[in-house]
Amino acid sequence: MTGKPTIQFTFAVDDPELDDERRQKIASKLLREIRDLDEVEKADRAEDLNPEVGSKPGFATLIGVLTAEVSIKNVKGFLSFLGDRLGDKPIKITVKVGDKEVNIEAKSRKELLESERVAKDLLAAMGGGNV
What are 46-54's contacts with CB under 8 Å, separation 24+? Predict the structure, then answer.
């Protein structure tokens, strides 16, 4: 980590026509690509914060859901990457800065890129410095 503020994105393709297996395959491929990006500080599968009783620790990941931590200066590049990979598939994103978060549903690349403004507004509202 660089010590600079990062924004955490949690996202999933929200296409009702995809079954769990297909969604997981898309997420696995996307995770490998995201981990190779210079813009991303950290990327992983999203963990289920409310796992079922009796489930094994470390196995409570959400199907097809990923998280990525991105520095402020790299948000636009990261969102462009997602837009290129996911095209006009519906996607749900949670943008988290510190303990504040905003949920966004994007149905196009343009709407996805709008989350950059939301993330920067959220950081500014928290007094996160120059963005």
Answer: 46/10, 46/12
Q: Which pLDDT does position 131 carry in this prediction?
A: 46
- Mean predicted confidence (pLDDT) in 8-19: 83
Domain presence at residue 79: yes
**Residue 99 sits in which domain range?**
6-51+59-125
Structurally, the chain folds into a number of domains equal to 1
The model carries a pTM of: 0.78
Q: List, edge to edge, every strand of the sheet that includes 61-71.
A: 40-47, 61-71, 6-13, 91-97, 100-106
Q: Is residue 1 part of a domain?
A: no
Rounded CA-CA distance 96/84 in Å is 22
Q: What is the pLDDT of residues 73-96, one digit of tens each?
A: 898 889 889 888 877 778 888 888
